Amino acid sequence: MRKGIAVLLSLCIMVCFLPTVPAYAVDAHSNIVDSIVGVYEDRLSWEESVPKLDWKANEATMGLLKIIAHDLDKDGSNWDRIEAADDSYESRLTWEDSVPKLDWKANEASMKILEIIAQELDVNGYYTENIQNFRDTYDSRASWEESVPKLNWKANEASSGMMIIIAYLLDDYDLYSEEIKTIMDPYTSRLEWEDSVPKLNWKLNECRLKLMMLISLLLDKDSNYSDQIFAADDSYLSRLEWETSVPKLNWKADEAIMNLAKYGALVSDSYFAEPEEDPGVEPENDPGSETDYDDPVDDEEEDEVIDISDAEITGLKDQTYSGKKLKPSFDVELDGEILVEDFDYKVVYKNNKNVGVATITLEGIDAFTGTLKAKFNILPKKATLKTVKGLKKSIKVTWGKVNTKMSKKRITGYQIQLATNSKFTKNKKSINVKGYAKTSKTIKSLKKGKKYYVRIRTYMKINGKTYYSKWSKVKNTKTK
Q: In terms of C-beta density within 10 A (0-12 exposed, 13-18 middle, 19 or more buried), how is residue 113 classed?
């Protein structure tokens, strides 16, 4: 699965064109890596603009990933693709003055390089479709999206998908398989309710930081830089304890990713190098000797075929309508062991876009046979509770209209719930407001001078069944 080191005649990594490094230079990688990171560190000594520092950190990461990609590309078959990814950024650099756009293009170039690394590692083609889906999703968004922050975020989202695949492919002994499987959970859970693109990008970069740490640890097979790798992660975590500025946290996460990529680039040449054969060692299976190897056919045992229907699906949760086909995360467990998608089974989804019931079918592959099915609900989008105002023995509730068409129709209406305690267990009352266009409701006949807690959710009736969204945030007020 591993590819060996390409003997590079020249390597032009940085935005400022570095001099050609001869293939015979023993410290070629060290010098280039130091030059890449040095440009950022020099800037750090005087630059006060956080967006500019963030951009330069991402620019350095792009150069470091390029080193890893060239090391993996032993036969040079991907040389042009790697250089093209870098050139697309460097050409933009000659005329673009917008820092946000340069930052986006640097991250876009990194995504393309990570795609090449993932494809090169995936020699058996297990992840071909996944890699293509990550790239297609980004390219599709880029074809119409005009918001640079959103494009930057989506480029990083595609990169994280590529990084997950790279981590899986490098983790030969499943040292980090469980960690890789859940590493994106903080981001995906935030994605369900967070509307702020800068905050989503920051949380995404936190996950990418963890992925880059695992990738660097896996590349550093002799643990030459393990202390430094963990220190790079710790430097971000220590900042996280007191920093409240999202742009600064995002920058420090990107800075940590750069430092982690640095150690990956320092060891990638040795990791992907093919072991040299010792010409003096002869095989000891002389056909005429008594130590002939046994005929493998004689000792071959028939592989046991396991029915995957005996497994259990855990962690599968209901999802919120997004307009896209939803593929939630879950675990498949059999006899205490976690099965792995695309190795032990493949997943087929049905009705996984619109509000209603979606079906997952697992089909056993390799040592597994049979099928296993599970279902999850796709819920309508939730409403935003705007105000609750206490009036005379009544409360006026206002909310944001949800007018998105889901399942080719809009929501049926809203359900308001109020109670006299925050857990909604005392004097609970529910009121349905029919019609998606409604945005307010006055609830009467309440107790005078009483404090009420209020929340709201949407609902849709489909084929005789009612689907409720997740609850909004809770607000409270006191009646007069």
A: buried
